[in-house]
Amino acid sequence: MSVAELKERHVAATATVNSLRERLKEKRRLLLDTDVATYARNHGKTAITFCPTDLVCCRTLQGHTGKVYSLDWTQERNRIVSASQDGRFIVWNALTSQKTHATKLPCAYVMTCAFSPNGQSVACGGLDSACSIFNLNSPVDRDENIPASRILTGHKGYVSCCQYVPDQESRLVTSSGDQTCGLWDVTTGQRISVFGGEFPSGHTSDVLSVSVNTSNTNMFVSGSCDATARLWDIRIASRAVRTYYGHAGDVNTVKFFPDGQRFGSGSDDGTCRLFDMRTGHQLQTYGQQHGENEDIPSVKSIAFSMSGRLLFAGYSNGDCHVWDTLMAEVVLNLGSLHNSHEGTISCLGLSSDGSALCTGSYDKKLKIWAFGGHREVI
Amino acid sequence: MNTVVAVDYAFAVEYTGPPIPYEIPQAIPIEIERIPVATVAAAASLPDHLLLPVVQPLPSPDPLKKPPPPPSEHAVSSPTSVIENHIAPDGELSGEVESSGAVVFCSELKGSPDSADGKHERISMESALSYDFGFRSSASVENEFADDDDDDEDDDGVFTSPVRRGGVSFRDSAESSGAASSGVGVEYQVRDEEYDRTVKKGACYRCLKGTRFTEKEACLVCDVKYCSSCVLRAMGSMPEGRKCVSCIGSPIDESKRERLGKSSRMLKRLLSSLEVEQVMKAEKYCEANQLRPEDICVNGKPLTQEEVVLLQRCPCPPLKLKPGYYWYDKVSGFWGKVRFFLFEDVFYSIFSKSLVGHKPDKIISPNLNVGGSIMCNASNGNTGVLINGREITKVELQMLKWAGVQCAGNPHFWVNADGTYQEEGQKNIKGQIWGRTRTKLFCSFLSLPVPSKAVNACGEEVNVMLNRAVHDYIEQRTTQRLLLFGNHGSGSSILFKQAKFLYKSVPFSEDEIENIKLMIQTNIYSYLGILLEAREFFEAEHLVQKRNSLFYDSSSSSELVMNEHATVMPYSISPRLKAFSDSVLEAIASGNLEAIFPASTREHAPLIEELWNDSAIQATYSRKTEIQVLSSVACYFLDQVVEISRVDYEPSKLDILYAERMTSTNGLASMDFLFPQYEFERNDLSEQDSLLRYQLIRLHTQGLGENLKWLDIFEDAQLGIFCIAASDYDEFYENANGEIVNRMMESKKHFEGIVSHPACQKLDFLLILNKFDLLEQKVEKSPLTVCDWFDNFNPVISLHRPNKQSRSAQNCATLAQTAFHYIAVKFKRLFYSLTGNKLFVTMANVLDSDSADAALRYARDILRWKEERPAPNDEMCSTDHSSYSH
């Protein structure tokens, strides 16, 4: 078979795939006769009402000297790790708002940090294309920094996000600018599997975010600059279980819904979306109308409340909207409250019991928001 | 404290406008003892002259009780809240948690604002004349109002008893309720005199409880003291140590400097040891708490930030540096404080003559470049004897005499750091001051300093100290970031490595060298692979040729078969080597070369040697010009393949420079450095410039993704350096889609992408056209117009008409120089069309260390010009060859 013939076939195959994809999209559109908000409205549901004092900033964590890029809570709900462009990660006691550890990283350009399930070690990744693991109990060195106990190398691009598999102490999932995700064994430092890359069903651009399903820890979802999110099975590295289309811009963040059957995503197109994991349908879009010439703020980070009724979304313009996931309405904007952040909200996370929300911003601060009054945690 | 308040919070401006027709409401001065007290059903007794609406207090069972007992009901907020669990013990706050049926008094209490103006000391209320009080239940309201006996209804603006301050902050409703429900985050800005008066002496400033014997923590800035239950709320997360939230960022009270970093027992009790450690670290090292450099004068000249760093980081620093005036003898390292003579000093000096003058306090590291030069009267001596140009004090003279130095006739001495001294104008060293042990004894007797052991370090060591990392907290500000972009093969990694060789005393650590060695050894296999593949190709080609020739030559096919076996094939190798070659090729094909080969270098080394010496390989290598993919770098390494494949191979400097890729991960690499000073530069550079730290960050365009998602991280960088190989114009490669792409066009695409990225808008760019030597070699043979972008390049070599593009160089410029200018202008125009700014271009050949150095120094010059430039768009003249204007 000659090269020309092969090329011809390739072109034909690509065209077929594209037409099939179009048909699939059309079919989906026909099948999807409603979305969550319409359905809920038809059933007489109303949006949650929030008065501005129901969610209040009760702690301000100051101490970073650069933009905060990432944060994570421990599972025992009182500690936070945050990573900033000042090249250090800080472990905070959320109760006293004091630092317990502050360590300079080997590479200052950090993009992500994560606590291990037992809260004893921290993983940080960034532009050095490596993920460094720090054991918080290890003795500090001469400059009072914690030395990295292990450095996971193997990615060929920046490490954009990392998360431990919740029920496995030594497993870490990373996403990278080399269009792949990786599963690592932290104790040995070996990469167990690579998701994407040369496999045809992988992401076709930088992967920006991962989220591991908490109810079925074999599944994780990744969001990428190719405007898709993909679902992966940790046991099957060869192909993505499903690909979710819908966003019109880079998918900056993905997060599993608390029940593990859905996941949310946030994108540069200014919207958050809710996808059903099993059917592959997009259930709901959470976005606001913007004027023609307005700059659409991109969604930087999202988090669901314990019940999933609320979706917290941090935007590049410093807003932090609280969406009612059922009604697709913004019920509160933390950015409009008095002592809110002054810069892009780059990361946010809920404590494991859902009682407090922590936001990190380019204004170098982290703030902890908690439900005030007798409001129930939802 | 009053002065602080007046400066920071003064907002009343004297009215200078036309007279106003109406009567100005006036605040009536009140005597504190005669403040009308709100009592139950006593509203009618309010004085008539009060202009303000007064909220009638609600009946309370025990109105006169004071202070109120802390409401005992607990927080009704979410029981699982992290926050609530924490503050639950603090009973006095929880009573004010908002419940949904809130009674809200919104600014009803607002009266005529001028009344607050009149009350001079209220200014610290930070213009909070209209705040909202979110009172929860009527019960709590009645409680609070009833207890307002020490407040006056008149100045409604601060219509709160101090007790209520604990729960309600004076911000707005959002925050106040935030503070109420959680009790944290209340930002305290209230500190007025009257308030102070109401605070019992020794009580906590926040909850107003406690006596002078209760343990308290004081703010380092304003000295406000808080008790243990309030300190965490008042000081927040303490990013700069023990300061009230409102004091963060302000310089500390100098009298408290000695307390920096020394934890109190209370803090240790409140926080875990790890937390205390972090707070103390922050307190000690954060920028706001450092000595302000302008407060320290050395030899009459205020210091700069860098000089202070230098002073504190030297091996033998002055102890307990405080703001003040000092003198410093750079040659000998003598350091003294200039004391101003107050009355008592003069009085004292009458009795003790020897105390006249500022004798040295300490001998610090010599040769530090801080402050001005020493004056003759620096230490205010009156003895006539000069040491290093300073007239010494009587005490010192006494010491010299005891040390056995001849001091008759007011000699002028030069004393070196090691204590040797010589007389001015004479060469021979006369002696050692510290030579005799009893000198030191005398010194301690006269309370004069003696040199510590470390002081004997020589001048060079100071520079080493300079290279040492300054503390991170200071480092941030003084570093200028240079971003180095470049495609594969553009030489950006070579430039980076050159910078390491140029500016670092230890360019590469052992680990790094080990990594580079591994990388070279891995690469050599891939080069060999190319060679082996080429061999197979040549072999096949040779076979075909041979067959063809035989086909024409002979008629019998049997003869051909025989012949084939008999003739020595120039490109065939032995089966053993063939097996090895196959395994190498297989590993390359499967892409796991890195995993297999370097690990087994020991076994393969002899094989490689054998393979290399094989005639077939040599024959293939001799035809290297025919192998397209074999780069010049590959040839460089292949020439020494036998050495490289050995286990004990150590890469030379050139090997390191040539090694492709910096790291195996395509990650970013960064290095901090200082430009070492050249002799000829000393004059035109100020001290400060020479101490500027630079951080060179190399970003791999391929490794960091196409969409430049990460670029906003570098928003605060100062300069982008873009490396492009000038010789790329006639080189092509096949991209992932199978299209043949010109490398120069590819570089141009990357350049456009980066330059037009929003994060790079404020960045100046320097384009380094690298590999100028290669351009020189090939431009004669292969015209620049090979690249589509350069199609209108018409150099004026043969024709003698003036050419616009090469006007500056038309007489003497070679074709390569003309080509360089042409490319430079092309890029400048492109840059201008994209950003509207000026692009700086320079040529370089970064394999040559001088050229790399020149390029980086040019980058520094751009940064310096940038500071001097008034407007970003200003066209500026530069003397450099690259300031070729468009």
Automatic annotation (TrEMBL), chain A:
Keywords: Repeat, Transducer, WD repeat. The keyword Zinc does not apply. This is Guanine nucleotide-binding protein subunit beta. Pfam families: WD40_Gbeta (PF25391). Transmembrane segments: none annotated. WD repeats lie at residues 61-102, 152-194, 200-242, 244-285, 338-369. Belongs to the WD repeat G protein beta family. It comes from the Eukaryota. PROSITE patterns: WD_REPEATS_1 (PS00678), WD_REPEATS_2 (PS50082), WD_REPEATS_REGION (PS50294). One of its GO terms (biological process) is signal transduction. CDD domains: WD40.
Automatic annotation (TrEMBL), chain B:
SMART domains: G_alpha. GO terms for biological process: G protein-coupled receptor signaling pathway. Residues 144-157 have a biased composition (Acidic residues). Keywords: GTP-binding, Magnesium, Metal-binding, Nucleotide-binding, Transducer. One of its GO terms (molecular function) is metal ion binding. InterPro entries: Gprotein_alpha_su, GproteinA_insert, P-loop_NTPase, XLG_GTP-binding. Residues 61-72 have a biased composition (Pro residues). SUPFAM superfamilies: P-loop containing nucleoside triphosphate hydrolases, Transducin (alpha subunit), insertion domain. Residues 61-80, 144-183 are annotated as: Disordered. Mg(2+) binds at S493, T665. GTP binds at residues 657-665, 684-688, 770-773. PANTHER family: OS01G0977800 PROTEIN, PH DOMAIN-CONTAINING PROTEIN. This is Guanine nucleotide-binding protein alpha-2 subunit.
